[in-house]
Amino acid sequence: MRLTSREKEIIEFLKKEPLISQDELAHRFGITRSSVAVHISNLMKKGVILGKGYVFNEQSSIAVIGESSMRIMINNQGEKTDIDVDYGGFAIQISKVFADLGVSVKLLSMVGNDDVGLVLLDRLQKNGIDIKNIYRHSKKRSCRKVFLNNKAAFEECFSMQDYEKAIESREWVAFNCEWLVIEPQFQELLYNRALSRNEGKVPYLCTCKHLSDSEEIPEFLAQYSSVVLGIEQPDKMDSYLNAVLSLVENGTQNCILTDGHSRLMYFSKQGVTDFPLLPNQCFNSRNSLPALLAGLIYGLSCGYPLRQAVRIGIGTVAANESKKAKDLKRQAR
Fold first, then answer.
1. Do residues 210 and 286 make contact, with C-beta atoms less than 8 angstroms apart?
2. pLDDT per residue over 5-63, tens digit each?
3. Domain residues for 29?
4. How far apart are CA 51 and CA 206, in angstroms?
5. Secondary structure (DSSP) of 239-292
6. 56 within domain boundaries
7. Which of 58, 78, 110, 322 is most buried, by the most CB atoms less than 10 A from its CB?
């Protein structure tokens, strides 16, 4: 949680004297009562104080920025065609994982002024996810994506300018959390916004990225605290070793590189650890990266060392895959 020095002073004082009045606080700090009221209001908005009586929330705050969408999946195999519809996207996927871990996140996303938007909001609420920071575009429809045989074919989505406007309107929420988890398509946008801020510190920026066909790792990811990278080919793991080491040398605190099938390597200032994946730990190195990232951030935010946080991430992926398999069986009945 990013707090001002005055807010930290007030918190320490309130923990010692939780029944003190705002008038007494004003007298103790030599400021006006209205200034105290503003500080208390800001602490409540940041989630540090849960309500009257100065009940404190000791849990680290996590915010997620990502896309929510309706996905139409067409699977054509000869004469047989299956068409399925679900509601997902990075924002919904990773928020569900955090909810399953018992973490309340602040979700920054966007939906349109249509029935799909209402369904997306309803799905999020049913999963216990706070939707008050979701931007609802008044003139556009919610994001729709069409996949043909598991490959993206068509999409109708918001522009990057739309997302910039939405993020700007909720920047206070995004940059006053402790951990900010960012969808890959917004990595550079949030990096630039963080770079341009003059006030105080920024959250720990966290993200994931699937690298395809020897794709280079963007240099700006060195400014992210935690990065999870996935690749398809196991034989490409070692070819990325120097690039990931460069990320860590230039600022990234924790980085994971994995093919999802045979190996997972994690990097920090303390060195590199090669973690062989057991058969029951294997996962899709593209689709499961958000779950791996969520488990990693959960572990780090709880104060676990990196090794244990990585294990939590792997366990989170396994639990998420198992849950999805059960859901598919239930839907098939």
1. yes
2. 888 888 878 777 766 788 888 888 899 999 988 888 887 766 667 555 565 555 558 99
3. 5-45
4. 29
5. GGHHHHHHHHHTT-SEEEEE-SSSEEEEEETTEEEEEEPPGGG---TTTTHHHH
6. no
7. 110
